[in-house]
Amino acid sequence: MVVAQQQKSGAFQVLVGKIDDVLQYAIGDPMRYLANWGRLYSLWPVHLETACCSVEIGAAAGSRFDMERFGALEAFGSLRQCDLLIVMGTVTRKLAPRLKLVYDQMAEPKWVIAMGACSITGGLYFDSYNVLRGIDDVIPVDVYVPGCPPRAEAFLQGLVLLQEKIRRAPSLSGR
Amino acid sequence: MTLETEYMPDADRIMSVSLGPQHPGAGHFRIKLWLDGDYVVRAEPDAGYVHRGEEKMGEYRNYTQNVPHLERPVILDSSNILLPYALGVDELMSNKIPARAQYLRVIMSETNRIISHMYFLAIQGLFLGHTTLITWCMGDRDFWIDFAERIAGARVTFAYIIPGGVRNDIPSFAIDKGLKLCDWFDKRMDEYEKIFFQNPMVHQRSDGIGVLSREDAIAYGATGTVARASGLAVDVRKDEPYSSYDDFEFKTPVMTQGDVYARSYVALLDMREAVKIIRQALKRLPPGPVRLKLGPQPRVPAGEVYSRTEGARGEMSYYIVSDGSPRPYRLKIGVPSAKNLRVLPVLLKNVHIADIPPIYWGLNYWPVEADR
Ligand code: SF4
């Protein structure tokens, strides 16, 4: 889009970007835009804690960082209602089959955030005998949030990035 | 909810159910339950989902490299797990820790005690159906995290207490902030008492639930808040003072009911004492250096040492064997969660399903710590 490349003031650029989005996604394919927009702000993360990064999820869901204002609220109900799997850190050999099971039980469309160095590469525990070196072999990952543990702000940024990805999803199914 | 349902061959009424590892009442941990209607007949904890081989890793990293990975399992209470390690290595190397470093160690470990108990109370409020407590505790916990961050520069994993002292000195503005925070938090805890601990709803849900008798606490080797809630006055800070804890005035809170309510209330009383200690330490902080020069790869003389401290959940201990090389020959970590887990099958007998989460979390059990 030619307009967006012009160097203008910040607020103007944001406005142009928004109009650009609407033109591209809403007018081009209104059903897809509407469906993905609906998914965007109603992410329900599964409550599957895998290791110590869950402390920062607790902080992010707590009252200071308040994950809910970004449209994600931890679901304490059923797995079938959830569409976001946050892998909070180390995945060990014992947990890996369960992680796969949880992922398979979730209904489509579903997304995965790999949180913490451990779930990305193994982190501090890369040479431990019981730890997977990253979860990519087990389930597909959409957004990686590095850190050990990532600060709550970093996690929220990962969430916003995921929402951006969902907004730009090329198909109606949200993937 | 992941359910494995199968009927036991002998009794048609008994149903076995698996609670966890994906369950809001039990994170990274599974409890196998045998149920008769709404009652739990038998419970068997299944730990080990987060076993990361800390002890083996300790053997192929040197004494300095061991610091960051040792604090990860006990991330809520990260300074209290490093303190016994530092004490043990210091004892092996015959280090004389400067007085200022000892006080800073005390400040940091008491701050961590508060941070850990706030998280504990937050989740306990959630499990008891008291949503105000989780929002209050999570919010107020962040003020203490801010204070610790001013000293150590990280949010939860501080790596502040190291062999030979502490990593860096406390900035002067943090002292004033800390004193103000202590005064504010004292008043804040009165509000906690009013809204949570004097709440009839909370009393109804937690009084007389999961009672652990004093005899059982001794027999099963319970420690920390669990033992103190059952009338057992165990506190390593008093029994074997370390790191100049004998300079400070504080009490060991003990309650006698031994139920879920007592275990939650002991945590609040613990925090009151911790605030007292922090205030005394900040006011009387002695001048001087905070760290000995040890070099990047300190060699530790051959020998063995057992060191223990009082963490937020209970007794933290290390058994370190050195053969004179830069790496430990054996590093055994003793954590309170592993000790208190033995109590869980005893408490989960003839209780309602709805009481499982408060009883489980009331033990202040942190699976990552127990699995190591
Ligand atoms: S990345 Fe760090 S904090 Fe997160 S699970 Fe791994 S060791 Fe724990």
Could you please describe the fold and organization of this structure?
- Chain A has 175 residues and is mainly α.
- Chain A has one domain (41-167): Rossmann fold (3-Layer(aba) Sandwich).
- Helix content of chain A is 41%, strand content 7%.
- Chain A is globular.
- In chain B, strands 1-2-3-4 form a 4-stranded antiparallel beta sheet. In chain B, strands 7-8-9 form a 3-stranded antiparallel beta sheet.
- In chain B, helix 4 runs antiparallel to helix 14 (356-362).
- The A-B interface holds A 46-52, 54-56, 58-59, 61-64, 76, 78-79, 90, 92, 94-95, 98, 101-102, 105, 124-125, 127-131, 148-149, 151-152 and B 1-2, 21-24, 27-28, 48-53, 56-57, 60, 68-69, 72-73, 75-76, 119, 122-123, 134-136, 138-139, 141-142, 145, 155-157, 368.
- The structure holds iron/sulfur cluster.
- Residues 51-53, 89-90, 116-118, 123-124, 148-149 of chain A line the site of iron/sulfur cluster.
Largest Cβ-defined interface: A-B, 38 and 38 residues
**What composes the largest sheet of chain A?**
3 strands, parallel
Shape of chain B: globular
**For the terminal residues of chain A, how far apart are their CA atoms?**
24 Å
How many strands appear in the DSSP assignment of chain B? Answer: 9
Number of helices of chain A: 7
**Distance between the first and last residues' Cα of chain B:** 26 Å
- Please identify the top-level CATH class of chain A: Alpha Beta
